From TrEMBL:
Protein name, entry field: VTT domain-containing protein
TM ranges: 30-51, 82-102, 114-139, 175-195, 201-224, 236-255
Any single biological process term in GO: autophagosome assembly
Native organism: Linum trigynum
Keywords: Membrane, Transmembrane, Transmembrane helix
Length: 269
């Protein structure tokens, strides 16, 4: 970890900022996080209060396909009669999970397909996932530095170096990261503001990069009863297609790096 700290301090000018904050969070940083959690809790409470009196014991975050099918069966009725409430509740839960890196958003994506079909489900998943990633981005900008450095010091060094090297074609690189498993999406959300990825590039790469995976997951959610395991979502063809798209997106960045090296060599000669 000490080596990572030294590398960050000697980086492209942002390293001092990365290690400026200590751990744990300061009072004001913790207060900001608490206010965000309170805001999400109030949103969910308001949705709950607008629903009719009933037994809502089935309302819980699904952790496996069996729980997801039970939730889908109950929500199908409410979706037709209380569409707005279901949509708002879904959005609040998904954004909350993305903001605080809570596992299980894949089940929420499957649920979107089961309840709203392919087109509506993909639009909903891309919207909520982008909103959650953006919320995580801005929250991390305020309170995330000590967390990222504590959890992922080596990944942070690697990410910072790659962003600095590919600054001129950063959108292509960020698209590549979204489309391939090079770095976890949760890490990208939290670390991007710390290594100075501009928000407009982060936003555009997130919106475009999430569409292929969202389509695959939402489409699988329509045939939820036939799904045996979450691992069945991504077969070889799906993974190969997403990787190919990722390679195409990073190609301009790699070509730009080679051109810069050639120019540098010519200048030395």
């Amino acid at each position: 970890m000490e080596g990572g700290r030294n590398q960050l301090n000697s980086g492209n000018g942002t390293g001092d900022n990365v290690v400026r904050s200590g751990f744990p969070l300061s009072f004001w940083e913790a207060a900001v996080g608490a206010l965000v959690i309170l805001g999400f809790a109030m949103g969910l409470l308001l949705v709950y209060l607008t629903l009719p009196a009933s037994d809502y014991s089935f309302l819980k975050l699904p952790r496996n396909l069996e729980e997801l099918q039970i939730l889908r069966d109950h929500l199908e009725t409410y979706t037709s009669d209380y569409t707005a409430q279901v949509l708002v509740g879904y959005c609040v839960v998904y954004v909350f999970m993305q903001t605080f890196m809570i596992p299980g958003t894949v089940f929420m994506s499957l649920l979107a397909g089961a309840l709203f079909g392919v087109f509506g489900g993909v639009a909903l998943v891309v919207f909520t996932a982008t909103a959650g990633a953006s919320s995580c981005f801005f929250l991390s900008k305020i309170v995330g530095r000590p967390l990222v450095f504590t959890l992922w010091p080596d990944k942070l060094v690697f990410f910072q170096e790659q962003v600095a090297r590919r600054r001129e074609r950063l959108l292509n690189y960020m698209l590549f990261l979204r489309l391939t498993p090079t770095l976890p999406n949760t890490f990208i959300n939290v670390a991007s503001p710390i290594v100075d990825v501009p928000y407009h590039i982060f936003l555009l790469a997130t919106v475009i990069g999430l569409i292929p995976a969202a389509y695959i997951t939402v489409k699988a959610g329509i045939a939820l009863a036939e799904l045996q395991s979450v691992t069945d979502l991504y077969d070889f063809n799906s993974i190969a297609a997403m990787f190919l798209i990722g390679v195409v997106s990073i190609t301009p960045t790699l070509m730009g790096s080679n051109e810069q090296k050639k120019k540098a060599s010519a200048a030395i000669e």
